[in-house]
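Sample entry (102 residues):
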Amino acid sequence: MIWAGMTSDYQTGPYFFDGPVNAASYSAILETWLIPQLRDRGLLDDMWLQHNGAPAHFALSVRDVLNEHFPGHWIDRGSPPSPAPLPWPPHSPDLTTPDNSL
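Predicted structure, serialized as C-alpha coordinates:
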Protein backbone atom coordinates (compact mmCIF):
# COMPACT_ATOMS: atom_id res chain seq x y z
CA MET A 1 0.00 0.00 0.00
CA ILE A 2 1.02 3.56 -0.62
CA TRP A 3 0.17 6.83 1.11
CA ALA A 4 0.66 10.36 -0.18
CA GLY A 5 -0.60 13.81 0.62
CA MET A 6 -0.63 17.25 -0.91
CA THR A 7 -1.32 20.87 -0.13
CA SER A 8 -1.67 23.71 -2.59
CA ASP A 9 2.11 23.98 -2.86
CA TYR A 10 3.65 20.89 -1.26
CA GLN A 11 3.53 17.13 -1.74
CA THR A 12 4.49 14.65 0.95
CA GLY A 13 5.21 11.08 0.15
CA PRO A 14 4.78 8.67 -1.25
CA TYR A 15 5.10 6.46 1.79
CA PHE A 16 5.20 2.73 1.08
CA PHE A 17 3.85 0.53 3.87
CA ASP A 18 5.98 -2.48 4.73
CA GLY A 19 3.19 -4.88 5.66
CA PRO A 20 -0.53 -4.50 6.31
CA VAL A 21 -2.21 -1.15 6.82
CA ASN A 22 -4.01 -1.28 10.14
CA ALA A 23 -4.59 1.11 13.04
CA ALA A 24 -1.13 0.48 14.51
CA SER A 25 0.80 0.95 11.25
CA TYR A 26 -1.25 4.00 10.26
CA SER A 27 -0.85 5.65 13.68
CA ALA A 28 2.89 4.97 13.42
CA ILE A 29 3.31 6.75 10.08
CA LEU A 30 1.27 9.69 11.34
CA GLU A 31 3.38 10.09 14.48
CA THR A 32 6.84 9.16 13.18
CA TRP A 33 6.73 10.29 9.55
CA LEU A 34 3.92 12.68 8.55
CA ILE A 35 3.52 14.86 11.63
CA PRO A 36 7.28 15.54 11.96
CA GLN A 37 7.45 16.51 8.26
CA LEU A 38 4.52 18.87 8.57
CA ARG A 39 5.91 20.37 11.78
CA ASP A 40 9.35 20.91 10.17
CA ARG A 41 7.73 22.77 7.27
CA GLY A 42 5.48 24.88 9.49
CA LEU A 43 2.33 23.30 8.05
CA LEU A 44 0.99 21.33 11.00
CA ASP A 45 -1.10 24.09 12.59
CA ASP A 46 -2.55 25.45 9.34
CA MET A 47 -3.77 22.40 7.49
CA TRP A 48 -6.69 20.00 7.45
CA LEU A 49 -6.10 16.28 7.17
CA GLN A 50 -8.71 14.46 5.11
CA HIS A 51 -9.32 10.73 5.20
CA ASN A 52 -11.40 8.42 3.10
CA GLY A 53 -13.29 5.38 4.38
CA ALA A 54 -10.36 3.01 4.90
CA PRO A 55 -10.82 1.06 8.16
CA ALA A 56 -7.42 2.11 9.54
CA HIS A 57 -8.42 5.76 9.16
CA PHE A 58 -11.31 5.59 11.58
CA ALA A 59 -9.86 3.38 14.32
CA LEU A 60 -10.20 4.99 17.74
CA SER A 61 -6.43 4.98 18.29
CA VAL A 62 -5.95 6.89 15.01
CA ARG A 63 -8.67 9.36 15.97
CA ASP A 64 -6.84 9.98 19.25
CA VAL A 65 -3.66 10.84 17.31
CA LEU A 66 -5.62 13.13 14.98
CA ASN A 67 -7.39 14.88 17.84
CA GLU A 68 -4.05 15.49 19.52
CA HIS A 69 -2.14 16.81 16.50
CA PHE A 70 -4.93 18.19 14.28
CA PRO A 71 -7.45 19.44 16.87
CA GLY A 72 -10.57 20.40 14.95
CA HIS A 73 -8.74 20.10 11.63
CA TRP A 74 -9.47 16.70 10.13
CA ILE A 75 -12.18 15.21 7.94
CA ASP A 76 -13.35 11.62 7.61
CA ARG A 77 -16.53 9.70 7.11
CA GLY A 78 -17.74 10.92 10.51
CA SER A 79 -18.94 7.65 11.97
CA PRO A 80 -19.62 7.21 15.71
CA PRO A 81 -18.52 6.72 18.42
CA SER A 82 -15.95 9.46 17.85
CA PRO A 83 -16.88 11.49 14.79
CA ALA A 84 -14.39 13.72 13.05
CA PRO A 85 -14.57 17.46 13.70
CA LEU A 86 -15.85 17.79 10.14
CA PRO A 87 -17.57 14.78 8.55
CA TRP A 88 -17.24 13.98 4.87
CA PRO A 89 -19.89 15.94 2.96
CA PRO A 90 -22.86 13.72 2.10
CA HIS A 91 -23.24 12.78 -1.56
CA SER A 92 -19.90 14.38 -2.39
CA PRO A 93 -17.58 13.06 -5.07
CA ASP A 94 -14.34 11.42 -4.04
CA LEU A 95 -12.32 14.31 -2.62
CA THR A 96 -9.10 12.33 -2.27
CA THR A 97 -7.00 13.72 -5.11
CA PRO A 98 -3.97 11.44 -4.60
CA ASP A 99 -6.19 8.44 -5.37
CA ASN A 100 -6.70 9.86 -8.82
CA SER A 101 -3.20 11.18 -9.57
CA LEU A 102 -0.94 8.41 -8.31
